[in-house]
Amino acid sequence: MDRIDPKPDIVGEVVSGCLMTRARRISRVITSIYDQELRCHGLSASQFSMLIVIAKLGGASRAEIGRANFQDRTTLTRSLAPLLKEGWIEELPTEGGRSRPVVISVAGESLLSEAAPAWREAQRKASRLVGSAGAKAIIDIAENLPREDDPA
């Protein structure tokens, strides 16, 4: 009986140059740096990032926030839930059944101000880890990602 090679070609191919596995590894390491620095403010890196997106948009529907943050509806709902519970964001009432805009609350703005030094320290550590060329490459790639509503 022939044995199947335990390391088919795909393993070597992925190990030698898969962008997805490398990007996920980099993401986990960098996210961990931000999580460590922001923890003393009761924030995770993803929560901080979501607060920044909402503050930047200044009042947006859930769909707009999801598009801006490259998140599907289910993931976005899970991401928003703790921010709403903590009172860092709020949904404004509207008339006529339209979507309720999500805005950062006064407590959320205060939290961002308080957490800014921790974010800056995480930014320094992450930048040191990837180097200036790596940091520039990450920013450039992120800025040039196609949006859901952009033509392909």
UniProtKB/TrEMBL annotation:
PROSITE patterns (UniProt xref): HTH_MARR_2
One protein family per Pfam: MarR_2
Protein name listed in UniProt: DNA-binding transcriptional regulator, MarR family
Gene3D superfamilies membership: Winged helix-like DNA-binding domain superfamily/Winged helix DNA-binding domain
Keywords noted in UniProt: DNA-binding
Boundaries of every HTH marR-type domain copy: 16-147
GO molecular function: DNA binding; DNA-binding transcription factor activity
InterPro entries per UniProt: HTH_MarR-typ, WH-like_DNA-bd_sf, WH_DNA-bd_sf
